[in-house]
């Protein structure tokens, strides 16, 4: 009797192994997309395990009740087959729930674990900027400065009396700090001391060179020099229908300033102490949040519309060439070492590549926390983690 029962149980286990092929196509696609195909579906694993457990229970039950069971298919064999089949089906459906949860959690992208160093922050972090020697994090408690060394050592705290700070820009080497809030633009000298309000109005974006800061204030884009303490309207341009600047990046090799507004990406030309243009513009088909510039490529974080990529080799005619919208919401984007890093809030950091000319996800690092902002500089990517209120740093070529 053992041999027919064993054959019956084996057939049930084969059936259990085949069960996952009946999964919905969307679930299978989500698991096999972009590098996640190495994960064995839990529905398959638990179906086999459930079949083994159910079959074992059936064998035990059949042996203990052998005196009352006949030898036909209504007896011992059916008890074993039914136990194995029931266990396989039960395990399959439990495993499928795990697979659906996994697909929703990683959205078809392979999980990756990126080692990071971190420094604790005071208050709630909002934005950050990185220079050759320092990292500045602005938040509810002012500005915290860290040394851009192996341990990200705390240097100082500035602007503790200012509230509503949401913008920070560090001069690359001179050490000047530009801070923006709804009340205006403040400049702080590099060696300590109080700052000065140099422009009233709602500051929404800023980018700094060693001598000056380009600032988006209300519906204007202006250029203000460092080492001043006079409050006034500075030379610049009106942004017109696009409204306020959402983000600003300097392109020093071409003397350009790239600006994301609520409706388009624009390039302005630096001319002495002012701006001219726009030199070129391209619609975003949505509201941009942040931008990153690497050589002739601009990436724009578009919130729930993902990331849009533009070829800006001809600044007069920027051209959209790709879109990536796997993440539920992209707060910020940076580019370094041939990789794109997308801050996706509670999902973590998506890592992409453009090697083939189209964005492809290399993985999703959920262990980096609730990522709300990031900046890549000098081979490292710096990340604000609002889950732990900390500053994280990873190697861009991890």
Description:
The chain is α+β, with helices and mostly antiparallel strands and about 400 residues long. It has two domains: about 1-105, no CATH class; about 115-395, 7 Propeller (Methylamine Dehydrogenase, Chain H), CATH 2.130.10.10. Helices cover about 20% and strands about 40% of the residues. It contains four helices and 28 strands. The strands form seven sheets. Strands 1-28-27-26 form a four-stranded antiparallel β-sheet, with no helix packed on it. It has a four-stranded antiparallel β-sheet with strand order 2-3-4-5, with no helix packed on it.
Strand and helix map with partners:
Layout: H1 2-18, H2 25-32, H3 42-64, H4 76-106, E1 117-120, E2 125-130, E3 134-139, E4 142-147, E5 154-158, E6 167-170, E7 177-181, E8 184-188, E9 196-200, E10 203-208, E11 212-217, E12 220-225, E13 236-238, E14 247-251, E15 256-260, E16 264-271, E17 274-283, E18 290-294, E19 297-301, E20 307-311, E21 319-324, E22 332-336, E23 339-343, E24 349-353, E25 360-365, E26 371-377, E27 380-385, E28 390-395
Antiparallel strand pairs: 1-28, 2-3, 3-4, 4-5, 6-7, 7-8, 8-9, 10-11, 11-12, 12-13, 14-15, 15-16, 16-17, 18-19, 19-20, 20-21, 22-23, 23-24, 24-25, 26-27, 27-28
